[in-house]
Automatic annotation (TrEMBL):
InterPro entries: Leu-rich_rpt, Leu-rich_rpt_typical-subtyp, LRR_dom_sf, LRR_domain-containing. The keyword Repeat applies. The gene is Lrrc57. GO terms for cellular component: cytoplasm. This is Leucine-rich repeat-containing protein 57.
Length: 238
């Protein structure tokens, strides 16, 4: 991609606050974006071949949305955590194994997509985020859901297509969790905490494709209570 094309994109971005350059085979984050650190509200560099997100990302202090789906990122810089206005972060289909230690400082974050990475656990840093609505951790290599999950503020947690065989009973204590997706994991029925059914806010539990038949779920204690929440929610959206 020539410099003139990039220049045109930069000029548009200066006016609109949106820089979108997807599917152009970029191997690195465009350094020229530094000129727009105060203008940009949205950066979308999905479907490229970017391997490193440089520390300068921390300078985009007004950024609300960052998308880097389908790139080759193996790590994220700590500087990313300075983006106090960031509400949406899409990092699907990269090679991420963990999140920066200070990730919990992204205090405005509402939507986080990390589907198709190499995470092995539910990152504890997510528990400090008070405005989180949707967390997508599907298609990773997560094997268990730890006790810290009880502090997660999200409304929807997607853990489909992992290797989960154990879930902490603390998940029932998530204050806002309404939708829990656990399809295509390695769960035995005995490993599914019954308190999810009897004593949680969860009104949609998706568990198809595990090591038990769905109809067995109906035999568990608390299933009636879960169905009451499920039906009430359905009526609300009907």
């Amino acid at each position: 991609m020539g410099n003139s094309a990039l220049k045109a994109h930069l000029e548009t971005a200066q006016k609109t606050g949106v820089f979108q350059l997807t599917g152009k085979g970029l191997t690195e984050f465009p350094e020229d974006l530094q000129k727009l650190t105060t203008n940009l509200r949205t950066i979308d560099l999905s479907n490229n071949k970017i391997e490193v997100l440089p520390p300068l990302i921390g300078k985009f202090s007004f950024l609300k949305s960052l998308a880097l789906n389908n790139n080759k990122l193996t790590a994220l810089p700590e500087e990313l955590c300075k983006l106090k206005k960031l509400e949406t972060l899409h990092l699907n289909s990269n090679h991420l194994r963990q999140l920066p230690a200070a990730f919990g400082q992204l205090s405005a974050l509402k939507t986080l997509s990390l589907s198709g990475n190499q995470l092995r656990t539910v990152p504890t840093q997510l528990c400090g985020l008070r405005h989180l609505d949707v967390v997508d951790l599907s298609k990773n290599q997560i094997q268990n859901v730890p006790d810290t999950v009880g502090e997660l503020q999200a409304i929807e947690l997607n853990l489909n297509q992992n290797q989960i065989s154990q879930i902490s009973v603390q998940i029932s204590h998530c204050p806002r969790l309404k939708v829990l997706r656990l399809e295509e994991n390695c769960l035995e029925l005995s490993m599914l905490p019954q308190s999810i059914l009897s004593d949680s806010q969860i009104s949609l539990l998706a568990v198809e494709g595990n090591l038990f038949e769905i109809k067995k779920l109906r035999e568990l204690e608390g299933y009636d209570k879960y169905m009451e929440r499920f039906t009430a929610t359905k009526k609300k959206f009907a």
